[in-house]
Amino acid sequence: MDKFIIFLYTLRWQDIVDITLTSYILFRFYILFRGTNVFRILIGMTILWFFQRIAVFLGLIVTSWVVQGVAAVAALIIIVVFRNEIRSVLQARNLKSILWEFTSKTVIPTIEIIVESVFEMAQRKTGALLVFQGKEDLEEEIQSGIPWKGTVSKEMIMSIFWPGNPVHDGAAIIEGDRIREVGAILPLSHRDDLPSYYGTRHRAALGLAEISDALVIVVSEERGDVLFAKKSEFKEVKQKRRLKQHLQEHMGIATKKQPFMRREMLETAMAAILSIVFITGIWFNVTRGRDTLVTFEIPIEYMNRDSGMEILNTSVNAVSLDLSGSGALVKSIKPDQVDVRLDLSKAVVGSNSFTITRENISLPPGIVLKNVYPNEVDVDLDVTIKKTVAVQIDWVGKLPDHLVLVEASTDPLSVEVIGGKRILEDITTLYTEKVPLDKLKENGNLSAKLALRPASLKIAPGSKDKISIKYKTAQRF
Amino acid sequence: MIKRTISIFLLLCGISVFLPRAGSAQQDETLAPGEPPQTLTLSQAVMCEDISANAPRNQTVVFSVAREKAVCFTAFDEVSAKIFIYHNWFYKDIISARIRLALQPPRWSTFSSIQIRKTDIGPWRVEVTDENGQVLRVLRFSITD
Fold it and tell me: What's the number of CA atoms in the CB half-sphere (13 Å) around residue A156?
């Protein structure tokens, strides 16, 4: 018990937020994809992952490789094969429904309209076939549908299935409160246990229900019966209330009185609890595993330097950080996630000494700083000034013995440079890069770049960094 | 550095032998204390490989180490009394030698030189100054292979 209380004290508020947020994401993922093939495949993949971990634990090298490979390929397959299904789940909902809502209430009046229409068509013995899409995409199962995209209304449904309408023999595909397609051809069921009075319309309803999660309603033209098909279930519905209930259940809408709602609530609560348990387990595994120590060499970043100053010299450019944390976290650290920053806002011209503390170091969550070496850094700062310095050619090589280089002039004679005051105090001349003598003709012109040493020097705007050289040789006496 | 100082000293001794001796009358022409300084006008300043007949020989801005010597020759307009000038030799921006030279009528030209070695390769300059350190001319040259 004491250990548990001590453990609770070690929890940070960030840890609670971490677990809660990730659990909610997992829970929403379940809500959005439940009942779809994608969800089933994801569960399969999770099982594969556990299997792989067990294989690794038991030292089954080849098995763990194979399972890992299968899982990697399966991830790609899910995205490619179920792209339509994933799209329909994400596109059909607005941001609010993705993040928060459990059902879409806009379909309640639609259900009423549909139920009324279906029973009126049954009374008139008007044949009808209505498909209510579930979470699975039906694009590959349905053929030859004519796009409709009309809002559901009794008149609309009645006119679609009016015997004089060319599309009355096909199915109407209903999505939410809209009729998406009409005149659609559905796959037929091959069951041989169906009553002989069931026609093609009945076989089509059952055919689609068998291979998808869609709910299909059939109104018999001969007998005036209303039947609904879902999965392998194919039942006659005599009461409007029952049909409404089936539709509500299919669309995920229910009232408190209905038992399936209680079942669904229980299922959702279980999913929420499982999400929390699962994520908490992962969190513990990742953050509270065995302690691992690692050393990183991190360059120091200097911040808030006065724009009129420049860094002349530092005692070190990088520090060694000894970090610890759980093995999984330590392994996942990348050097760019760790920063060492020194604030130079209070630094003065000359030598400044800084002590590196925990406040100067940013680490990924869950990683603890054990040691810094060296923890003292000396930074030498200087004021930036402009200075005009002479330009001189830095000749190298050798002229032929019979020649002497009598004259060599530069254009410009001097340039303006920007650099640290203390550096520029000792500099009166800026030299060109090495200019070889070997290729000189009798007289001529050359050009050479200035060699900026130390590298912190800069040519001031308006001054040239390339120098023209005019030279003249003569015969040696 | 000691070797360099000794070699410069020996060379200066050579210069003093080489330059025409001034007579005792010329010695008297040295400025008396409190007398206003005379105007010194540098008429010629060149780097050369040698001095021949009191004139620079093979004027150049590049000296090969093989030549072993670099000479700075300076000539002034007429001076009425003995005066001193300096040839300050710089390797890059570091002073390597400060040579004091006397000018006394009737001769107004003088020179200084340094022995050059492999370690001297690089850019050099000679600043010619008067007694007060005022720079009269800067001569730039390189010592190469």
Answer: 19
Q: Which residues of A touch B57 (CB under 8 A)?
A: 477
Q: Do B92 and A476 touch (CB under 8 A)?
A: no
Cα separation values, A214 from A169, A228, A318, B132, Å:
19, 11, 63, 106
Give residue-wise pLDDT tens across range A5-51. Answer: 776 776 778 788 888 999 998 888 888 777 666 777 778 888 888 88
CA angle A154, A157, A162 (to 5 degrees): 120
CB count within 10 Å of CB A415 equals: 20
Taking contacts as CB-CB distances below 8 angstroms, the residues of chain A near B60 are 404-406
Please name the residue of chain A whose CA is at the shortest distance from the CA of residue B95: A426
| pTM value > 0.80 | no
Torsion of CA A301, A303, A309, A314, to 10 degrees: -30
If you classify domain B2-22+40-144 with CATH, what class do you get?
A: mainly beta
ipTM value for the complex: 0.74
C-beta of residue A458 within 8 angstroms of C-beta of residue A418: yes
**A205 three-state secondary structure:** helix
Residue numbers in B near A399 (CB within 8 A):
62, 64
Mutation to test the B interface, candidates A387, A389, A395, most B Cβ within 10 Å:
A395
- DSSP symbol at B131: T
Interface contact A395-B144, CB threshold 8 A = yes
Tell me whether residues A406 and B59 touch, CB distance under 8 A. Answer: yes
* Domains of chain A in sequence order: 12-100+260-285 (no CATH), 107-251 (3.40.1700.10), 291-382 (2.170.120.30), 384-475 (2.170.120.40)
Q: b vs e for B119-128, b when ≥16 Cβ sit within 10 Å of the residue's Cβ?
A: ebbebbbbbb
Q: What 8-state DSSP symbol labels residue B65?
A: G
Cβ–Cβ of B123/A429 closer than 8 Å?
Answer: yes
